[in-house]
Design a protein that fits this description.
The complex is a heterodimer of chains A (112) and B (114). Chain A is an all-beta fold and 112 residues long. Chain A is built from no helices and twelve strands. In chain A, the strands form three sheets. In chain A, strands 2, 5, 6, 10, 11 and 12 form a six-stranded mixed sheet that branches. In chain A, strands 3-9-8-7 form a four-stranded antiparallel sheet, with no helix packed on it. Chain A is globular, with a radius of gyration of 13 Å. Chain B is mostly beta strands and 114 residues long. Helices cover 0% and strands 54% of the residues of chain B. In chain B, strand 7 (68-72) and strand 8 (75-80) form a beta hairpin. Classes of the chains: A mainly beta (112), B mainly beta (114).
């Protein structure tokens, strides 16, 4: 079945540091890939998405590129802020039903 | 943008009772999904709710414990039955909108069983 393997957390960075959160996947067919973010005390929000190979999703300074050859969708940001502290989930949807399969989540803490 | 409304947003329930969570979407969708997020953990798919047929449950989830209704293309309910403290979680509904390539989530129901 489908699966998402996400970089283990927690991750702690200083403000303005570079962020990478690794995500790899296994899926049948051609999945769409997502990064969701969950800020403290809030619900799940879509951060960015990519629906086909070589697509780059971007939002709020975050980027991720759909790499079919390496089955990866790593999340990056050049300069993190304290307000980026949250839990980040990599996810894919595939098949006719398009239900989501989530990674385990990565807790990011950014220190001032 | 798509809107998906979920209620209640939170509840505290006595063990042995049941709670029904409602999910309303602003457009007709064929399939809706129910997820559970246990404290400090990722999201796990409970079931896929199809309009006009029985829901399809994932391994570890059964209809007697989590009955689902899907009376039309814009609405679904999830009931958590005979609750125990282990059912304390956030429950979320979701649907996938193919034309924009995006999955949308309700704001979640934070359930605490005491």
């Amino acid at each position: 079945g489908d699966s998402v393997t996400q970089m283990e957390g927690p991750v702690t960075l200083s403000e303005e540091a570079f962020l990478t959160i690794n995500c790899t996947y296994t899926a049948t067919g051609y999945p769409s890939l997502f990064w969701y973010v969950q800020y403290p005390g809030e619900g799940l929000q879509l951060l960015l998405k990519a629906t086909k190979a070589d697509d780059k999703g971007s939002n709020k300074g975050f980027e991720a590129t759909y790499r079919k050859e390496t089955t990866s969708f790593h999340l990056e940001k050049g300069s993190v802020q304290v307000s980026d502290s949250a839990v980040y989930f990599c996810a894919l949807s595939s098949g006719s039903a398009r239900q989501l399969t989530f990674g385990s989540g990565t807790q990011l803490t950014v220190l001032p | 943008s798509a809107v998906i409304s979920q209620k209640p947003s939170r509840d505290i329930c006595q063990r042995g009772t049941s709670l029904t969570i409602q999910c309303q979407v602003d457009s007709q969708v064929t399939m809706m999904f129910w997820y559970r997020q246990q404290p400090g953990q990722s999201l796990t798919l409970i079931a896929t709710a199809n309009q006009g047929s029985e829901a399809t449950y994932e391994s570890g989830f059964v209809i007697d414990k989590f009955p689902i209704s899907r009376p039309n293309l814009t609405f679904s309910t999830l009931t958590v039955s005979n609750m125990s403290p282990e059912d304390s979680s956030i429950y979320l509904c979701s649907y996938y909108r193919g034309e924009v390539g995006e999955a949308f989530f309700g704001q979640g129901t934070r359930l605490t069983v005491v």
